[in-house]
Amino acid sequence: MPKVLIAGGGLVGALNACFFANRGWDVEVFDIRMDIRKMEHVPGRSINLALSQRGKASLDAVGLKDYIANSGVKMFSRLVHDIDGKTFHRQPYGQPGEHIVSINRRHLNEIMITEAEKFNKVKFYFEHKVIKADCKKKELHVIDLNTDQLYKIKGDLIIACDGAHSAVRRSLMALPHFNYSQEYIEHGYVELNILPKNDDYALEPNVFHLWPRGDFTLIALANRDKTFTVTIFAPFKIFKKYMYDDKSVLNFFQKYFPDAYKLLGDSHIIETFNRMKPQTLLNIKCSPHSFGDCILLTGDAAHAMVPFYGQGMNCGFEDCLVFSKILDEFKDDIPKALAAYSERRVKDCHTINNLAMYNYNELKDLVNRMGYKIRKNFDLKMNKYFPNFWIPLYSMVTFTQIPYSKVVEKREWQNNIISKTQNIISLLSIITIGAIIINKKEIIKNIFTKS
Amino acid sequence: MPKVLIAGGGLVGALNACFFANRGWDVEVFDIRMDIRKMEHVPGRSINLALSQRGKASLDAVGLKDYIANSGVKMFSRLVHDIDGKTFHRQPYGQPGEHIVSINRRHLNEIMITEAEKFNKVKFYFEHKVIKADCKKKELHVIDLNTDQLYKIKGDLIIACDGAHSAVRRSLMALPHFNYSQEYIEHGYVELNILPKNDDYALEPNVFHLWPRGDFTLIALANRDKTFTVTIFAPFKIFKKYMYDDKSVLNFFQKYFPDAYKLLGDSHIIETFNRMKPQTLLNIKCSPHSFGDCILLTGDAAHAMVPFYGQGMNCGFEDCLVFSKILDEFKDDIPKALAAYSERRVKDCHTINNLAMYNYNELKDLVNRMGYKIRKNFDLKMNKYFPNFWIPLYSMVTFTQIPYSKVVEKREWQNNIISKTQNIISLLSIITIGAIIINKKEIIKNIFTKS
């Protein structure tokens, strides 16, 4: 059986391990962290995860879907909080019953590691730092952090799941024809928590709470332990200008998010802002995703994206599923499968990266605009009556497995139809009004009988 | 005196060494290669260099301009070769006398190393490989290739001049807010030579020879030894499809560049294509160019560009001059100078990278199009009569030191004027023709007497 070396034992690395364990391959996973199942506090970014169809389907392929989906909290709509702290309005995500699942990163990661380790051909090496991959020699260079010993490990396939700052990817940067870009957005984020109130959720749990305030935004997602993970997104210059000390931070929250402010509490807000600096958000695109006969980039190592479409994890999980299907198709011929993967998958990853940037604007502001609301309602109505013919953009991304690039093609087709329909309606209106004005009803009659 | 560590002793590294030697700083330069003055053949890319105003001004600041400019061959115009191998047309670069200088990379590099070494506070370390820079500790990590010993060298300022695949830049990739992109174009290049004929140049020396053939192009630049450096640029897929063996390569040259083909000779073409694979061309942009209190990226490490505007070296040299002036302005306060440099210089470097991509299309094809020729002639005529008011785009880039970003602003202003003038002329024509048609000459009289 071939041997796969996986750099990184985070969400995508652990899921890849499950996929290859199921194939019966020898699997070795190298993770810089301690075994997270033994840690009190796990370092690294969080932002609560929203599991949707692509992620579920990928988990389903290794038999984990129901177990994991039932460990989260279902969210059926956005609940938009007004600035008065009292009124809000609801925007369903899709048709009744359609939902995404708020899920805890750590819990999910732990389940998958345990699941993969059930196979005796799978081995996790914790506290092992991957420093580079050698494409020609098919080697992964790994340092055991307990002994500082460097190991050069040979494998048939090397999969980089080592995140946005991937060491594997970095070691490929000088290869000819490797296109790459990383772009920080002007927004950063700080994460807070709302505790339970009288042993129950302090806010309605089965919604995605949203406080859009133009250039900055607060969100809150429920956890199973009845807490909420709350995240503020704002430009770094806003953090600097308006949240520079205890008093200014409290004033800011009180002014713009009065209801959330009360639930968060002064001391928690102050403590968090003193402990944490705003974290950066990064958009990474590269092409190809596969190299030579043995290296594949997946997850954030291939396409770190801003979190505003809730697709980062889902896209990373889908990478595993797509590659697994391609390996089936090419009967485990690794070089052919790698070439086909880049050929098919890169454009989809570029598309979701772009959509995530687009939704960055939507979450900030659009949700409050009339035109956006009308289109959203129109799309949902159309979808209700023509469920296969007309699927809203958000639903295609979230509730289907239509390849991301096809999603955008379909959206353009919808826009085109709407635009043509509008033109026809305008034309007919003008003709009708014109006819009425010159009081020649005969004209109307003629036109409609002829057409 | 402060100490500057320079990664890379190529063109920009050696010029930086001259600048800091002139300031009286301690200078240490680390270069992976042997001392090129002792080598028979220097590895690495060439493509003959075209020295223009920005490069000259920078060399002038360290007293090298005349010496170096006189070591090259002046080029006053493009000479475009038709496909029949017999006819050609001439496109002057600017006003009579305005020229660029074809120059040999190695010769230029050697002069500058020797010049810098005249100062006893300057030390070149050859066969020393820079592997990373540590921003916090102000250290450069360097391996002596003769002993494999790693040195961590402290300095007050670290300047990366280690080229498109800069190790210094690579070690900064994970810093927050460092935006970066690298993009390979679909064209590659192969370099050949035309030898002297009867002890003289085989082609006219004081022009830039150009064989534009749509998607692929041949160029030739004269050297002082009466040879020509010849470069073919073509998409990799064209190389693969039409230049895959001895016979196909010769056929290709014979068909598309018949006059150059004769001068190159069968055996030289075959030998070159057997020895060399087509080389890649790369566009790199990043922002910022300076980091913390001590690191600066210059030259290709900051902005590798495709060679189609002949500005890669000139821009790298101008980096040295711009930073030197900023150090003067801030009285050698390094952190302030670094911050000011990124603030001012990044947009200019992004602009010339974009212009180089734009000229990529111009060289390929545009030079043969009527609209392009008319505009080129118009610009030169306008420039002749209004030399300060109207400078053509190419002349602003090549014969002035107007910051690149300002060059593009001025070009947009010119386009605007042309467009408005065209509108006015069109309007007047329509009115005149209309008036003639309806045979009311009185109208024309009225309009022109009123206006």
User: What's the pLDDT, averaged over the residues of chain A?
Assistant: 91
Please work out how many helical segments of chain A DSSP would assign. Answer: 16
Secondary structure tally: strands of chain A: 19
Strand content of chain A: 15-25%
What low-confidence regions of chain A span 5 or more consecutive residues with pLDDT below 50? Answer: none
The secondary structure category of chain A is alpha/beta
* Quaternary structure: homodimer
Radius of gyration of chain A: 25 Å
**CATH architecture title of chain A:** 3-Layer(bba) Sandwich
Shape of chain A: globular
**Percent in helix of chain A:** 40-55%
Q: What is the CATH H-level superfamily of chain A?
A: FAD/NAD(P)-binding domain
Short description:
Chain A is of the alpha/beta class. In chain A, 44% of the residues lie in helices and 25% in strands. The first copy, chain A, has a single domain, classed as FAD/NAD(P)-binding domain.
